[in-house]
Amino acid sequence: MTESESEHIKEQFREALERKNHQHSMHGNAPAGDSKVHETHGPADHKREFRRKSG
To answer: Which of 7, 27, 35, 41 has the fewest CB atoms nearer than 10 Å to its CB?
Structure first.
């Protein structure tokens, strides 16, 4: 592989990485103060119990 082929491949990888990063950055456009996560926990009045089988 010659140096120009190697540089061409590196440039293709850089462009693909830029497209990938740009695509990921577009998904997180939530308005200020609005979160994608709502109700992070279930009801706090009940704690889950784990019991062993006896028998």
So the answer is: 41
Q: Spell out the residues 6+ positions from residue 30 whose beta carbon is closer than 8 angstroms to its own.
A: 36
**pLDDT range class, residue 3, cuts 50, 70, 90:** confident
For residue 46, the one-letter residue type is: H
- Residues counted in the chain: 55
CA dihedral 10, 13, 14, 17 (to 10 degrees): -160
pTM: 0.41
pLDDT digits (tens, 9 = 90+) for 7-19: 999 999 999 999 9
